[in-house]
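Comment thread on ticket #2218

A.B. wrote:
> Attaching the input chain for the structure job we discussed in standup.
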Amino acid sequence: MKKQKTNKKQNTDTKQKTMKKQNIVLIAGILLILAFVTGGYFYKKQQAEGISFMARENISTFIREHSPTIGNDDAKVYIVEFFDPACETCRDFYPFVKNLMTANQGKIKLIARYAPFHDGSDYFVKILEAARKQGRYWETLEVMFKYQPYWASHHNPQPELIWQFLPEAGLNIEQIRSDMNDPEIAKLIAQDLADAKTLNVTQTPEYFVNGKPLPNFGYDPLKELIESEIKANY
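C.D. wrote:
> Ran it. Output below, let me know if you need it in another format.
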């Protein structure tokens, strides 16, 4: 009987020790998650405040004289988009942003910045800039995105495939082939990449609305940030 009692006590002690260890692991896990979430929140808050300050003090980091723009010059909401013509997500977001601009007529101005992160995608930026000299920038961008699955399938840009689609943008193709070699375009791309680095842009598309970065990437966060800026400024 005494032995049974001893075994029972030992089993009870073992269970209590096991539960205690499990509780310690559980509490440690919860504290770790809280620390991660809290740290992430304050990091993003600090980053947003820093970039907003930069937007006020150094607007040229967001908007350069060479930056293509579309929308009302008197708009109070500026969307700065760093994009890559070969980026599939940039293609997906393009109509979404256009629809937001249409739904908020005259209140939004879009500024295009380049972040050609895919190998060889600076080639397509050069085409866009050459098209701008013919006043066909946005038309050419739409044609590029429309046929992107053909010339950049699976993130594999193939420059020779784009040319068959460009006449749809109403371009003088021979002039494009000449103008795209302008050394000034390479400088422009280098400047945009330098600004992207300053703003910690590591993927595309990346948006800043009145200098504020998205708290999280996605359609809803972008829509909410734009609408909050419209509400604050109109």
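A.B. wrote:
> Thanks. Noting for the ticket: Residues 99 and 206 are 18 Å apart (CA to CA).
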